[in-house]
Amino acid sequence: MPRLAALALAFLSCGTGPNPPVPLDRPLEPAADPAQIARGQALLAELQCARCHDGDALTPPPRERHCVHCHQSILAGVAAVGGDFAAPPAELARWQRDITHLRELPELRGLGRLRRSFVAAFLLSPHDLRPGLNTSMPRLHLDEPSAQALAAALVPDAEPAPHEPAGDPTRGRDLLGEHGCTNCHAFTGVATITARPLAHPPDPATMLRASQQAPDLRFTRDRLRPAALHTWLADPAALKPGTLMPDPDLRQDEIRDLATYLLTTPLEPLPPPVPPVMLPLLDREVGFAEVDAAIFHKTCWHCHSDPSYASGDGGPGNTGGLGFTGASLDLSSHAAISSGSRGPDGKRRSVLAPLPDGTPRIVAHLLARHAELTGATPELRGMPLGLTPVPLADIQLLATWIAQGRKP
Amino acid sequence: MPCTRLALAPLALLAMFAAPPSPASACMNEVERVVDVTNQAIRTAEELLARNNYRGAAKVVLGTFPKVLVADHQTRRQALFHRGQRIVALAQIRSGGDIRIAGLPARTDADREVALAWAAATLRLHAARGDTSVVLTSELAEALAQRPAERHEAHALLKELADADIMPTARAWSVLAALEQQRGDTNAAARATARCKELAPDDASCDPKGVS
User: How near does any CA of chain A get to the CA of B19, in Å?
Assistant: First the structure.
């Protein structure tokens, strides 16, 4: 069908000048309202976006409060303050081994290429945009006006009208493979495209970083403004200095073909969300130390820590941060975990007690993260926030420990 | 050259105080625990307390925060100072007021009563400051349970935690069991004791004779 469409386009263009641009099925986005931009800029600070992202509109916090910079410092074995972390080499080596998340995140630069409506929708209901990255945008505590204000602050300018004529989508598909784009990019919803090796491959470390950050191309049509897509394919660094996307070295006609394919090729629908299935309880005894090592100390306590031992900051999930007021949930010790969290009514409640369906609250949050990754938006926010789900086998450990009386 | 060194010495001293090494606070748990000596000391004291080494726990806290008895003392690590106060208060409660430190001599029964009163008042002060920690609530209840006039309040605090299924420790169950026993509710005492023993089968404190 795309081939027929391309033939038709070629026939129509014969003797009548260049093709018209790929038609938009929506109005162009106007410049954002200044009041909304101001509100969005305030929200960028309130939600502490700069704790994870770098970007032109963001004021970076000190390195020791920046998730990614802190991890990068540890990985490089260099300073948080004045030299090094002053940790014994064995500890430093252990941290370096353990840091798997938040080693790198997309920078919020050159965002004028994005559709503002996509940014707002993505913030409200984040999905797995970058399949190679083990971190995804967390579900923040946002309502629709706030998401729109943030999008206005990030993409304030009006959308330029697309003016490049439509190209040949069939040729565009071929180019995607010939230029090695799918070495890094997934493109779900289309038949597999085999990538040739890159003509000028970067060093392996850069290649790895690029493949981790490369978005799934199925979202291109929702995510990018068509006029910006042409500029991006012509010279990515012109739109986003420092981008890991290499210059694909395309002629203008090739850019038109490729852009047309990305914007128009039919996509298979995404598979429906799949509810995660709990593994049965284990028939062996499970102790707290095992659960603590596998789950609580491995992941949870980074955001649910003991404020006394952390300069008063118990993390977003305890004393607040990233726009959350804090649920007063400390997952750093057996006693603290047993103490529960503060519910919406302000009263403390157990996180180990069962919900009406019999699932312990904390288990339900961990399962919700699995559901989020299949595209669902469960009522309970998935935990760990924006990170790889806790493996079902580890959730099984936790559920078994709870069922066995949650002994210390 | 010596003159230069002398001239630089005050600058070096100034630099030491102007830019004290501070641990990473974003990686607040692991990094601070490893690199911050105050953090390490208070954790050591908590471990000693957990092993019923009350004098040892108090000694470590006093070595870190000599003014631990001063309620409104201000330090760079205020949260850890408060933690230290709680450790010394619990050491006093669990030793029956027998920890001898400057200001609390622990020589006579009256001295020990003063120490217990200080401990209860200190924990009450922390609770009144807005610390909503359930562990603190259970510690306060443990302190109040030692004081006959305040046992009713101790029972109410622990009962609320038990009813909400957020009792933090086996010890808290043990204190509740003793309070229920005193109130004559043997069924409730048995339930609390059973839960205590379930959590800490080898802990002698699960014996409801703990409150006298």
Answer: 9
